[in-house]
UniProtKB/TrEMBL annotation:
Major location category of this protein: cytoplasm
Gene name of the encoded protein: hpt
Annotated organism of origin: Aquamicrobium zhengzhouense
Primary enzyme class: transferase
UniProt key word Transferase: yes
Protein's UniProt name: Hypoxanthine phosphoribosyltransferase
Gene Ontology MF terms in the entry: glycosyltransferase activity
Highest taxon of source: Bacteria
Enzyme Commission number(s) from the entry: 2.4.2.8
Stated family: Belongs to the purine/pyrimidine phosphoribosyltransferase family.
Subcellular location: Cytoplasm
Length: 180
């Protein structure tokens, strides 16, 4: 088990497992034949997944535009969290096929808010790609079009995801053992 910052980290999805899955996701995305694709990475958690996914998309022949939106949600999954845009995209979405990329789909509040925002701005379509799906935590009717892995209900870190701003740099997804 890797030890990082003095903590044992149990590997849930290894770097090579994620890389293989990203290529499969990219192929599934390419099969949709989107016309004017705008990938929007939801910060901060999705930055590594989005970076790897768009390069896998390149390998399948896709050339999307890429944008970033910084979304913050206050309150945990069990309280009614308020979702806000902290930093918006610069690009026009009207008439375009938008692919939202996020790290984890949990309650669905973050992605529902962001999807509705893009639809209200006139996006032609809004699809959703997430690395991990914690299905049993869902509080909205929302589902992702492209899911890397079903995720058990553990708090996970790495591959862009943090606990208290730590562990984003891990090349794999893991669980902090002990008191984290
Ligand atoms: P929701 O779907 O709006 O409830 O929130 C999903 C967001 O919560 C994700 O984009 C993550 O930023 C965060 N999140 C949920 N579960 C975890 C976890 O296990 N580790 C790190 N971040 C998480
Ligand atoms: Mg997030």
């Amino acid at each position: 088990m890797p030890i990082v910052r003095g903590k044992d980290i149990e590997v849930l999805f290894s770097a090579s497992t994620i890389a293989r899955r990203n290529l499969e996701l990219a192929k599934a995305i390419a099969e949709r034949e989107y016309e004017d694709l705008l990938v929007i990475s939801i910060l901060k958690g999705s930055f590594i997944f989005a970076g790897d996914l768009i390069r896998a998309m390149h390998d399948t022949g896709l050339s999307p535009e890429v944008e970033f939106i910084f979304i913050s949600s206050y309150g945990t999954g069990t309280t009614s969290g308020e979702v806000r845009v902290l930093r918006d995209i610069d690009n026009e979405v009207k008439g375009r096929d938008v692919l939202l990329v996020d790290d984890i789909l949990e309650s669905g509040k973050t992605l529902k808010f962001t999807r509705d925002l893009m639809l209200s701005r006139g996006a032609k379509s809004v699809s959703i790609a997430v690395l991990l799906d914690k299905r049993e935590k869902r509080q909205t009717e929302l589902d992702a079009d492209f899911v890397g892995f079903e995720c058990p209900d553990y708090f996970v870190v790495g591959y862009g995801m943090d606990v208290a701003h730590a562990f984003r740099e891990l090349p794999f997804v893991g669980i902090v053992k002990g008191d984290a």
